[in-house]
Amino acid sequence: MRSIRTRRGAAALTVLAVAGLGLAGCADDSDGGGEVSGTAPGAGQPECQQLEQFGDLTGKEVSVYTSIIAPEDAAQKASYKVFEDCTGATVNYEGSSEFEAQLVVRVQGGNAPDVAYVPQPGLLQTLVQDTGKVVEPPQAVSDNVDEWFGEDWKTYGTVDDTFYAAPLGANVKSFVWYSPKMFQENGWEVPETWDDMIALSDKIAQSGIKPWCAGIESGDGTGWPTTDWLEDVILRNAGPDVYDQWVNHEIPFNDQVVVDSLDQVGNILKNEDYVNGGIGDVKSIATTAFQEGGLPILDGDCALHRQASFYAAQWPEGTDVSENGDVFAFYLPVTSEEFGKPVLGGGEFVAAFRDAPEVQAFQTYLSSDVWANEKAKATPNGGWVSANTGLDIANLNSPIDKLSAEILQDPDAVFRFDGSDQMPGAVGAGSFWTEMTKWITGQDTQTTLDNIESSWPSN
């Protein structure tokens, strides 16, 4: 897990901001905007301190392209109000379920957005190395990341020793969603170990309820939820060191530990007695949108759904997401005590494609503790968290978000970033997703992993 940095005083942060932003504020606008001038609309406001040096950006626009779509996009847009009030600039937001496939195409075709929220370090590497269009952020962004994030988070946004992209949101993926009310009514206990979870699944199945429900359809990203399953099990079976070796291709993708782990996942996801409660058979998992995969829990048609903390935003309005409510989540149990309690997580990184003051100002805002707290306040139904240590956990609006933030800010947790998100784009956002989808619909484990291994780039 990343180390927690000591929070420096506000005065020291302001000095860093002024030092970094003094240069950034005078950057040339390659699109003809010229140098920054005038007094920022929010000058003198505490929340605008880091943005004052960019001057008056009234009339300027920043385009944002992201995979974050409804209903989660509403909170994103609301969190930009402080930036717009402070600078006078306008943020134009575009969310798309085709983001992963379209971003590289748009960048290579000369239609890049000003800013993109890249959810995979591997995709960031592809963008930097294959397009040459990613623009380095101003010094203030680097300073913010040093201040509010751990060293490994900065590493995830670095390519070939150059820092390009600050972390944005984060999530904890090692969760299983369930209904506390349903558990109480049936006398079921939250499992402490993997064996306990399988025993519980058998018990639920014997009651006439399919214990698990799942969905992996996600447009061009279909299949990614199954990759999370595999990564979590590898972490539990082999530990973080072997996990890192697998992610970095220091051991083959089809290593025996991976074969065994995927078979273990298959004992749940490809078990007709276990899935797909309230939806269909095993193959229905591939055609069920991931946003809808866990909803049968609310109807009592299934009892368990493995999905990340951000799934809190997918429950219908009015759903009580709490320890004693309609739904909540428990930590995905370990298979043994040998490797402690590993936590799988993910997040997005802010990449820029235009060198302009308004873009730099937006990057600076998004990397700050100010934005993290504004985003928390703008997400009343929960489903969002950040690894930004300047985030006041009290500003988070759901118990699951608070639990996730505590995990992300815990220096003793064994945290690992989502493996597929770190792999080369051809694998992590390509063959890994497509082959795992084929696996769900009938392809065997060995063929699936052999095909992914053969797709790994040679250099």
TrEMBL record:
Coiled coil: none annotated. It comes from the Bacteria. InterPro entries: Bact_solute-bd_prot1. Residues 1-24 form the signal peptide. SUPFAM superfamilies: Periplasmic binding protein-like II. Keywords: Signal, Transport. PROSITE patterns: PROKAR_LIPOPROTEIN. Belongs to the bacterial solute-binding protein 1 family. This is ABC transporter substrate-binding protein.
